[in-house]
Amino acid sequence: MENGYYYDNDFLSGDVCGIGAxxxxxxxxxxxxxxxxxxxxxxxxxxxxHNDAFTESVLSFLxxxxxxxxxxxxxxxxxxxxNWMSGESERRKIQTNGADICGKIVLGYDYKGxxxxxxxGQFIDPTPNPLNSEWASxxxxxxxxxxxxxGLLLFECENYEHxxxxxxxxxxxxxxxxVAYWVYDNGTKDHLKFDGRxxxxxxxxxxxx
Length: 209
Hints:
Layout: E1 5-8, H1 14-30, E2 48-50, H2 53-70, E3 74-85, E4 90-93, E5 101-110, E6 122-124, E7 143-145, E8 152-156, E9 162-164, E10 174-184
Antiparallel strand pairs: 1-8, 2-3, 3-10, 4-9, 5-8, 5-10, 6-7, 6-9
């Protein structure tokens, strides 16, 4: 992956994404209390579904394709489904969940109160900045990846800082996104395969202290 990341602008079909986006809207509207991450302070909406059945199915589908892109055998770990809301952002960070590869796909969006040319995507710092005990942000401007519906963004988790600027669209706007993670299947992180579950799709409750 050049500069630590890869982007395919047209990876999932519009029909699949449309179904996924509508599914996400329904689930986030009517099943909020089922969300194991509903108290996540990074989300105003409090609606992130960990290891959702839809995203786990897409993760299974993605794995051989992502292996071809990365050029290594991968083991899937977990996935989640999120509805981003107006004003939300993602802080600058390097992924610290132990995964090696992260994949993000926008399933749909509706931006209100902004010009038709407005786009919201992911920033990635292409300068390697490996995580260590003295890690600090490079604070570089970064590359802006304009994520279209169905586009697949892949990046190396522990070497490249990523973030989202605030979603400037007004109240009632949203962006539906799924995120998937993999580890290199070389025996060094066997405990992270399937996020410690027996298989993909199995429910795992995430608890916060």
